[in-house]
Write a structure and sequence with these properties.
Blueprint: H1 3-24, H2 28-38, H3 45-51, H4 59-72, H5 77-86, H6 92-100, H7 113-118, H8 130-140, E1 147-151, H9 158-168, E2 177-181, H10 191-199, H11 209-217, E3 223-227, H12 236-245, E4 250-255, E5 264-268, H13 286-291, H14 296-308, H15 319-328, H16 333-340, H17 348-357, H18 376-385, H19 389-398, E6 405-406, H20 407-414, H21 418-426, E7 431-435, E8 439-443, H22 446-459, H23 463-480, H24 489-498, H25 500-513, H26 516-533, H27 536-551, H28 557-576, H29 580-596, H30 600-616, H31 620-637, H32 640-656, H33 660-677, H34 680-696, H35 700-717, H36 720-736, H37 740-757, H38 760-776, H39 780-797, H40 800-816, H41 820-836, H42 840-856, H43 860-871, H44 878-894, H45 897-905, H46 912-923
Parallel strand pairs: 1-4, 1-5, 2-3, 3-4
Antiparallel strand pairs: 6-8, 7-8
Length: 924
């Protein structure tokens, strides 16, 4: 173990000792002595020895020391894991998991003696709820807070939290803290007796029982917990009398429903904190894994699972599924405990799958919990029975909403009122959150929603309410469609994103029911949202479903137009995903539909899309034909958005062919029109195109300004696809200026985004760019690995320009590895591919690599002659010039005088075809 690690351990130990000293008001020497004795030492000598930079020899000493520190301080999980690692423990994660739970059951204050007798002692550790405990303590310390209600649905942990909070605040109540369990009290008339039993009072005279109890409490300073009060609301009069006649008594109430008393303070409980996981099958990143044990829902699952199976340990592949379980039950403690009990017979993945299929899976046979808590079904049944019939009917209808809703939506779909919504909030069937100031959003727990939806289906046909739901969100989305093209684009995207789960549900229902009007309203804005957000796979799946449905319907003129638009958007998603061969027939089918029905805007869109695919495949003449026809059509019908698209594609084609002046003109014309119509996404995309062209010319400052402005807009509107393109270009600019670290950081960010949204083109490009940096830095094996992956991806999507570029890098890597036959093969294919698509700048870059190969096989004169040709070619971009100049300077310095004279005497004016023929002959 190195000295720096030992010093880090000594520093952490010193920090822990000083924390304990401050917390317990003791001297450092006393703390050291106590720790030493706890470890079986003679005192603090060993602790002092470790503090001076020496490591414990025994693992048992390390583990016991960590345990004592956890119990006596409030250091977090990351600190504990670092401490164990610095101490040289070989299994810090395992020990950390075992010790971490200890820190969540240390009372912050000593409990009063009365609490020990009056409050139940739980058999499990209390976990999480730090903020709630602080809020409760603050409220109970306020004399004006006489009655505090902890509200929440069944299983949320109200009772456990109340008892824990009361025990920690016991010193505020000299006459004690008492618990009145009311779940079994089936009548408000018995409430008085339950309270008297809880505080240990016996009735003694003919005076009324209420008067006797109030007389007893009048001079008491105590806290009374009234647990599970929701079914005894008719008995709140007794609580009012206690508050009026016993001024030093405070009430802590747990209830699924607000008591609605004037002096009532309330805290609404939500689930424990949990990490969000979109795809549990995907390997989690290191940052996510590091944060995993800090979530209270995860801590509860781990504790519960270890009770169910003492040898349970979460493997790395289990953790995303544990997070998914906690996410599915939305952090409800009861749901977590019920799920964890199944680790005896099922894997974490299987438990998550079972819950996704049915919440009824969450059940247990525990005998030490109330029957109403032995399954979520029982919890929901108990709450359901407390509702009046009109309330049940409203909850059933509200269950059609997914991901929450606003008041306007609820009113339109269920004809409810604000008062009725607030009543359901008070009864814990809905939660409310504030969005954008005054706008309130309502949510129903997902498992409770599924329960209510089953009730709706059991009561009859839910079609009417689902139809109203679909119609509302179809109108809602159609109304926001134009916002996605103008200056309010970011706001429009945010609004749609807030309602996307409801919109998904409306779309699927419209498809299933064949609601053509709703499909037509939803199709275009839903496509635009998916496209801008970069949700490519989901967008493709949504359009694929629609196309499959529409093909099997009677082919009316209106339906064919809708089918054409769906085909066009499905084709666009396939283009984004790099699946060009699958996209082309869909786009051509749509083009035929629109030509036959004289729909010029739709025709222009599909022409440009076909042109863009031709450009990606390296067929620049075909791309120009499509895009110029699209541009001409858009100019004739004055369709500015179509012109923007055509100019952008034409600009890309010109750049790849080395005509940079033409490329800048096309991009600038597109940018001018995009600004006229205020289309933020188009503005950002064309700025990025200008940045790319200026980078190719070596005008780095101008290029960076364009790309930075582009990235800022893309990020503002949440366009991940566009952000990837801007990050790639900014990485290229940084790399060409020698800042490899910055380039790699930008490439890594773009690559992660590409993989997250399934953008195969971006993934291949960024792998290749990372390979170029690895080549520059001399890590040839990594460069080969990255570029081999890049070529494979390019081949999958058929992007010829990318294939040539990655092969060129692989050729240069092979030279550095002295694999000259491989280098010849790479360069031969790269040249052939670049020639096939008329990509002159790429051909010239490959020539630079070929010149290096010549030099390695003792053909220095030919290498220098080739570099003379390359350096003087007008289509060479700045990146190519940099490579050519570097190779020239290196080889010229090595050349003997005779070789230099020979090269200087040669004619530099040669035709490209002659150079190509000579090179391909040598590479064959």
């Amino acid at each position: 173990m190195g000295q720096p690690i030992a010093k880090a351990f000594a520093s952490s130990l010193t920090e822990a000792i000083y924390r304990i000293r401050l917390k317990e008001s003791k001297s450092v020497r006393t703390v050291q002595d106590e720790l030493g004795y706890a470890l079986g030492k003679k005192g603090g000598a060993s602790i002092e020895y470790w503090r001076k930079g020496h490591l414990p020899v025994k693992l048992s000493d390390i583990e016991q020391l960590a345990r004592e520190i956890v119990l006596r301080s409030d250091l977090d999980a990351l600190w504990l894991q670092d401490f164990l690692q610095d101490a040289g423990h070989p299994e810090p994660e395992r020990v950390c998991q075992n010790l971490l739970l200890l820190s969540y059951d240390v009372p912050s204050k000593p409990a009063a003696d009365s609490v020990v007798a009056a409050l139940p002692v739980d058999t499990t550790l209390f976990i999480g709820r730090k903020q709630e405990l602080e809020n409760i303590a603050q409220n109970l310390a306020d004399p004006s807070c006489r009655i505090l209600t902890l509200m929440g649905p069944g299983g949320i942990g109200k009772t456990r939290l109340a008892v824990q909070a009361a025990s920690e605040c016991a010193d505020l109540f000299p006459d004690g803290v008492f618990l009145a369990p009311l779940a079994a009290v089936d009548s408000p008339h018995l409430l008085l007796l339950a309270v008297a039993n809880a505080v240990g009072f016996s009735f003694y005279s003919e005076e009324t029982a209420v008067s006797q109890l109030l007389s007893y409490l009048r001079h008491k300073q105590l806290l009374l917990i009234l647990d599970n009060f929701e079914h005894l609301l008719d008995g709140v009069g007794l609580l009012v009398q206690i508050l009026q006649q016993a001024p030093a008594v405070q009430l802590l109430v747990t209830s699924r429903e607000r008591l609605n008393l004037r002096g009532e303070w309330a805290i609404t409980l939500n689930g424990l904190t949990f990490p969000v996981v979109e795809n549990p099958a995907a390997p989690p990143d290191a940052k996510w894994l590091q944060a995993f044990p800090q979530y209270s829902a995860i801590q509860l699952f781990m504790q519960s699972a270890q009770r169910a199976r003492s040898d349970f340990m979460a493997r790395e592949q289990d953790k995303p599924y544990i997070a998914r379980i906690c996410q599915l039950v939305q952090g409800i403690p009861l749901g977590i405990e019920l799920a964890a009990s199944w680790v005896r017979v099922l894997s974490c993945r299987d438990i998550a799958t079972e819950i996704e299929q049915s919440y009824e899976f969450l059940a247990t046979r525990w005998h030490d919990v109330p029957e109403r808590h032995r399954s979520l079904q029982a919890v929901f049944d108990y709450s359901w029975d407390l509702l009046a019939q009109p309330e049940r009917e409203l909850v059933q209808q509200l269950a059609v909403f997914q991901g929450g809703f606003r008041r306007a939506a609820a009113t339109a779909v269920t004809q409810t009122s604000l008062l009725q919504l607030l009543l359901l909030v008070d009864k814990s069937f809905l939660q409310q959150t504030m969005v954008e100031g005054a706008n309130t959003r309502y949510h129903m727990h997902e498992l409770l929603r599924l329960y209510a939806l089953e009730k709706l289906r059991a009561q009859g046909d839910p079609t009417a309410v689902q139809q109203r739901h679909c119609a509302y969100y179809a109108n809602f989305l159609e109304g926001l469609g134009q916002a996605l093209y103008g200056p309010d684009q970011a706001s429009g995207l945010e609004t749609i994103g807030e309602e996307i789960e409801n919109i998904r549900a409306a779309w699927q229902w419209a498809i299933d029911q064949g609601e053509m009007a709703a499909i037509e309203q939803l199709l275009l804005p839903l496509f635009d949202f998916y496209d801008i957000r970069g949700w490519l796979r989901e967008g493709h799946a949504a359009l694929q479903t629609a196309v499959a449905h529409l093909r099997h319907q009677p082919q009316t003129p209106e339906l064919l137009l809708t089918l054409g638009r769906a085909l066009a958007r499905q084709g666009q998603f396939l283009f984004r995903l790099g699946q060009y061969h699958q996209a082309i027939p869909l786009l051509q089918e749509g083009l035929t539909i629109f030509r036959e029905r004289d729909r010029p805007q739709d025709v222009a869109l599909l022409l440009n899309m076909l042109g863009r695919i031709a450009y990606r495949r390296g067929d620049y003449p075909e791309a120009a034909v499509y895009c110029l026809e699209s541009l001409d059509l858009c100019q004739r019908i004055d369709h500015p958005w179509g012109m923007v698209n055509a100019f952008e594609t034409l600009g890309h084609c010109a750049t790849d062919q080395g005509d940079y002046d033409l490329a800048r003109r096309y991009h600038q014309q597109g940018l001018d029109r995009a600004r006229q119509v205020g289309d933020q996404r188009a503005i950002a995309s064309l700025l990025n195109g200008l940045g790319y062209t200026n980078w190719r010319l070596g005008e780095y400052q101008t290029a960076a300004a364009y790309c930075q402005e582009s990235l800022q807009i893309f990020r503002q509107i949440g366009d991940r696809w566009g952000s990837i393109m801007a990050l790639k270009n900014l990485g290229n600019i940084a790399g060409d200026q020698g800042d490899n670290a910055q380039a790699l950081a930008l490439y890594a960010e773009g690559l992660a985004l590409s993989r997250a949204i399934g953008f195969r083109w971006g993934e291949a490009a960024l792998l290749n760019n990372q390979g170029n940096i690895a080549l520059i830095e001399g890590d040839y094996h990594l460069a080969k690995q990255l570029c081999t992956q890049s070529v494979a991806t390019w081949r999958e999507i058929g992007y010829q320009y990318g294939i040539a570029g990655s092969l060129e890098t692989l050729g240069n890597v092979a030279i550095m590895l002295a694999e000259y036959d491989e280098a010849r093969a790479y360069f031969r294919e790269a040249v052939t591919t670049a020639v096939a698509i008329d990509a002159t700048p790429m051909i010239l870059e490959v020539f630079v690599g070929v010149s290096r190969l010549y030099a390695q096989v003792d053909e220095l004169a030919q290498a220098l002659s080739l570099l003379v040709y390359v350096k003087n070619h007008p289509a060479l971009d700045q990146e190519g010039k940099n490579k050519a100049t570097s190779a020239w300077e290196e080889l010229w310095a090595e050349a003997p005088p005779a070789v230099r004279a020979h090269v200087q005497a040669q004619n530099t004016r040669r035709h490209m075809q002659d150079v190509l023929t000579a090179i391909l002959t040598k590479l064959t």
